[in-house]
Amino acid sequence: TPKFAVFASGSGSNFQAIHDAVKAGKVPGQAVLVVTDKPDAFVVERAKKVGIKTLAIKPSSFSSKQAYEQAVLDKLSELKVEWIILAGYMRLIGDVLLGAYPNRIINIHPSLLPSFPGKDAIGQAMEHGVKVTGVTVHYVDAGMDTGPILAQAAVEVVSGNREKTEERIHAVEHELYTKTLQQLWSR
Ligand code: GAR
Predict the structure, then answer these.
(1) In this predicted structure, what is the pLDDT of residue 187?
(2) Residue numbers for the site described as Raises pKa of active site His (predicted)?
């Protein structure tokens, strides 16, 4: 079973969903570390609660992005992490991690890419007035939400209601991410 690390910057509901699916025997992997660039993020509490190690270091305390990623990479290597799963990690992955994990970094994004890449994809979709948006799981490359797509699911916008739309998207994310990892690691 592949060892993976989850990278997150926020609430960590996707981390929780993946962790729960692993525990339930639905995803054939082993979560060994949560990495966050935001030491105050709620994902840290979630990880502690379920007994998974956390690495919470601020990129701003390093002299460069390379130095920050090297510190993360040292920990990943120590724990023999094979896959990096981004779940609300709001930072572009740089050359150090891309070089160490070629085709082994996966991301989830709350839109039907290539529409609405980058920050606040749900806000962008509402602003544009689309009736259908969705969720994308994709391989990570050097671009912003540009790597090869693994899976997508559509979600209908609840017109004028961001909160309800977001709820729908999150529910679909949890389902799609676990299903995709299950397929990826079962072949
Ligand atoms: C998720 O909706 C995820 O798709 C999004 O951040 C949220 C994190 O929620 N990611 C991006 O926007 C990446 N560009 P979570 O912390 O509850 O999993």
Answers:
(1) 74
(2) 145
> Is the CB of residue 8 less than 8 Å from the CB of residue 89?
yes
Name every residue whose Cβ is closer than 8 Å to that of residue 145 and which is 6 or more positions away in sequence.
107, 109, 113, 114, 117, 118, 136, 138
161 is in an annotated binding site: no
- Ligand 1 atom at shortest distance from the alpha carbon of 108: 4
Contact between 20 and 46 (Cβ < 8 Å): no
Answer yes or no: pTM beyond 0.80. yes
ipTM (interface pTM): 0.98
Which pair of structure tokens corresponds to residue 117?
């890449």
Cα torsion 95, 115, 10, 156: sign: negative
User: Which residue's C-alpha comes closest to atom 2 of ligand 1?
Assistant: 110
Using 70 as the pLDDT threshold, list the residues of the chain that sit under it: none
Structure tokens at 73: 């990479």
46 is in an annotated binding site: no
169 C-alpha to center of ligand 1: Å? 10
CA of 185: how far to CAs of 27, 86, 110, in Å? 8, 16, 22
